[in-house]
Amino acid sequence: MQENYGLFMSIDREPANGVITWFEYHKHFLLKNGIQEDYVDGHNEHHEDLKRSIKEIIARDKASWFEAARTDPDSLTLDEFLAFRHPESSHTTILALVDELLDKLDRDGDEILTEEEFARLQVGEGGEGLLSQGEFERREIFRLMLDADGDGKADRKELLMYIDPKNPRHAREEAETLVTLADTDHDGKLSLSEVLSKMDLFLGSKMVDTAKSFHDEF
């Protein structure tokens, strides 16, 4: 977090007014990626001379920028910049994920999840079917990780704690998955050769890209 604050202050220069414009951030990004300053100062927005990989990052950044910009589409405040850099940790994003979870699982619309609602996933339009696969595991998750006060229900506060990327459960579950998939000799440990042989698996892990963790789960 301190690093992002320092980055914000270093980019906010033209002028230094407490907000970062897309122009300021985009210039910083290009210079950081080794683009010559004369190109940065005089390029057009189509970037014909840049590598495709750089242009794809710019396109993703621009989409994320407009999602984070709540007050002005052309600039970000410090809070908005932190949400732009780490959308998975944004309080606004976490609240939206709680709403999404309730929308999917809260069948009676009371904004509280029961163990039954969490364990038995609804499928199909109108909720005509229920998916019971993995129901036992989901009941265990509800009791051990979600229902903090043990009353058999999960309110918004408990859902926020459960979804929060800082919750240790995310790292624990992902570590167990990585070991299961990469441990080819089934000794319960990962050797360097096993990790290197599954490099794409580890680079695509939620532990590297935490923003995808919630959507992969439900």
TrEMBL record:
InterPro entries: EF-hand-dom_pair, EF_Hand_1_Ca_BS, EF_hand_dom
GO cellular component annotations of the record: endoplasmic reticulum
Any Pfam family hit: EF-hand_8
Molecular-function GO term, any one: calcium ion binding
PROSITE patterns, alphabetized: EF_HAND_1, EF_HAND_2
Chain ranges of the EF-hand domain: 93-128, 170-205
Keyword Repeat: yes
GO biological process: calcium-ion regulated exocytosis
The keyword Metal-binding appears for this protein: yes
Keywords of this entry: Calcium, Metal-binding, Repeat
Name of the protein in its database record: EF-hand domain-containing protein
